[in-house]
Write a structure and sequence with these properties.
Length: 97
Amino acid sequence: MDLGTAIKTVRKQKGVSQKGLAVLCSLAPNTLVNIERNYTMPSKATMRKICNALNVPPAYILFFSVSDEDIAIEQKSLFDALCQPIKNVLLNDISKR
């Protein structure tokens, strides 16, 4: 699970800077940097703030955080077939929000 990179992906898709998102979430900029670099995991309350500030459901960020290592070997081919098309749909929706 790569939650920090997922947050960064969604933030960039929305065209929001790290500093801008930190301000919107009432976080220190270094806190957001550490989250995006996967040095720290955000609390549930911080995740809620990030999702609200980016206007995206938490499920979107959680989907983007799933990595190959999270998928059982017997489900890998299905995941590989569906992952990118689903990401494309979500990124398109994120752009419209």
